[in-house]
Amino acid sequence: MISGAVDLAQDVLIRPVALDDAAALARAYRRNRDHLDPWDPDRPAAFYTEEGQVERVQVQLADRRAGRSAHWVLVSGAEIVGHAAVSNIVLGPARSGNLGYWIDAEHVGRGLASAAARHVCEAADARLGLHRVEAGTLLHNTASQRVLTKCGFEEYGVAPSFLYIKGAWRDHRLFQKILNDRPVPEG
């Protein structure tokens, strides 16, 4: 299914999330709370605790086993410095999923978001058998839009009132990347 760690940069690896990551994820989310706040939905207080992350990772692992999503963490030393995922996986004739990612505030500008997005797309194609990956950004998130464009995503529209963020339904710019043109497997 999903293999082990891969070097993204001199001191950063990307690897599948594991239950043992809960404490480091909680620290990373607390450390990056203000950094991620403009882009993320409101989070309950428990999200920032080790217990909250244990529950979250358990769901992610169950979803991976069921083929609904795949999550990775970016690791530098003992700390998690980012997360990347393909979620909402749909098979059948669609064979698609949604890309999501974030990078620690102290590691922004090093190309890690682009490297993580490329890694997820490669895994979505080679290991998960997807045909297409899509991503959405808030209209003013130009940094994420640059990452997606740099990774070969094409903008294909705007979704009005797409996600509820910061107390309102927010429009999102939509991007997609066609990974391959293989026929859908039979069966």
Automatic annotation (TrEMBL):
Specify one Pfam family: Acetyltransf_3
Q: Which Gene3D superfamilies match?
A: 3.40.630.30
Which PROSITE patterns does the record match to this protein?
GNAT (PS51186)
The UniProt keywords, alphabetically, are: Acyltransferase, Transferase
User: Example GO molecular function term?
Assistant: transferase activity
SUPFAM superfamilies assigned = Acyl-CoA N-acyltransferases (Nat)
The secretion signal range is none
N-acetyltransferase domain residues are: 12-180
The family this protein is said to belong to: Belongs to the acetyltransferase family. RimJ subfamily.
**Alphabetized PANTHER family for the sequence:** [RIBOSOMAL PROTEIN US5]-ALANINE N-ACETYLTRANSFERASE, GNAT FAMILY, PUTATIVE (AFU_ORTHOLOGUE AFUA_3G00765)-RELATED-RELATED
What's the protein called, per UniProt? GNAT family protein
> Can you name the source organism?
Streptomyces atriruber
The taxonomy runs: Bacteria, Bacillati, Actinomycetota, Actinomycetes, Kitasatosporales
